[in-house]
Write a structure and sequence with these properties.
This protein is an alpha+beta fold. It folds into two domains: 1-43; 46-269, Hedgehog/Intein (Hint) domain (Endonuclease - Pi-scei, Chain A, domain 1, Beta Complex), CATH 2.170.16.10. It contains six helices and eleven strands. It is globular and about 55 Å long. Residues 11-44 have low confidence and may be disordered.
Length: 273
């Protein structure tokens, strides 16, 4: 009996230990997957944080979170370009950003794969580069506060930091000034993987600007007020489509809505309401 009891106790202990290890492995795998999903979402953010500032045509400095479709903002070329679309608009979502500090004390924060015009040798030979690839000694383009002229400014320090907000405004020119530093309106999207494999990443802002041409045409057709109203209602869908790199889905949503809105607005214009 004593031997049987000892054997039974031993078997029970082994089973409990085995069950405990199995549960521990299962919990670890679940947590790992959750953490991986969170990190993937954070690292794939393609925006600016909410507190970055933008200069408007009326010389105001406003936070990215205050920016609206129809605002005319500095594009770094001595002109002001209209915001016609947001691929992301989240005020409090936490995310990781590349933080780039320039010699003129200006600091830009952008998502890791947001494109920036960079002169790698500070010789005014410009190419588009991911924000995470910018290194000290390279030059970004920034406005001189005294003269208002664009100049190359060396990067002094780079890093990765956490902040809140995901805002990605698209301008008619394809560029914009953020915290006094020139940035592209474009970032990681559906062609990036293929372009990276072919070594053609630097051409993507121009490609994406061309792809968004019909969107700019629609904006001009309906005007800022209607675009602001309609896109606000669609923003959650646009956020999801952009995050999933679903370019076709994004366009279809916009085109479907435009196909409905344009005739309605035309009828209002001729007084058939």
């Amino acid at each position: 009996m004593a031997v049987a009891s000892a054997f039974g106790a031993c078997m029970l202990t082994c089973c409990m230990v085995g069950l405990g290890m199995t549960l521990a492995v299962l919990v670890f795998e679940i947590c790992s997957l959750c953490i991986f999903d969170i990190l993937t979402a954070v690292l794939s953010a393609v925006c600016f944080p909410a507190h970055m500032t933008i200069q408007t045509a009326d010389k105001r400095q406003i936070a990215m979170s205050q920016l609206q479709i129809g605002h005319r903002i500095s594009d770094g070329h001595g002109d002001f370009s209209e915001v016609y679309f947001f691929s992301h608009q989240h005020k409090t979502v936490p995310a990781l950003f590349a933080e780039i500090k320039l010699r003129n004390d200006k600091t830009l924060m952008a998502s890791l794969k947001h494109f920036l015009p960079v002169s790698a040798q500070c010789n005014d030979v410009r190419e588009n580069m991911y924000a995470i690839e910018v290194k000290p000694g390279m030059c970004l383009y920034s406005l001189d506060d005294t003269t208002g002229r664009m100049e190359m400014v060396p990067v002094e320090k780079t890093g990765i930091t956490a902040s809140e907000g995901l805002y990605n405004p698209f301008t008619m020119s394809g560029e914009l000034m953020v915290n006094g530093v020139l940035a592209s309106a474009h970032a990681d999207w559906f062609l990036n993987d293929a372009a990276e494999a072919l070594g053609m990443t630097k051409y993507l802002p121009s490609v994406y600007q061309a792809i968004m041409g019909p969107g700019r045409a629609l904006y001009k057709l309906v005007g800022a007020e209607i675009a602001r109203r309609e896109l606000k209602d669609m923003q959650a869908t646009l956020d999801e489509a952009t995050s999933n790199k679903e370019a076709v889905t994004l366009y279809l949503h916009v085109l479907r809505r435009a196909a409905y809105v344009l005739p309605m607005e035309a009828l209002k214009y001729v007084g058939w309401n």
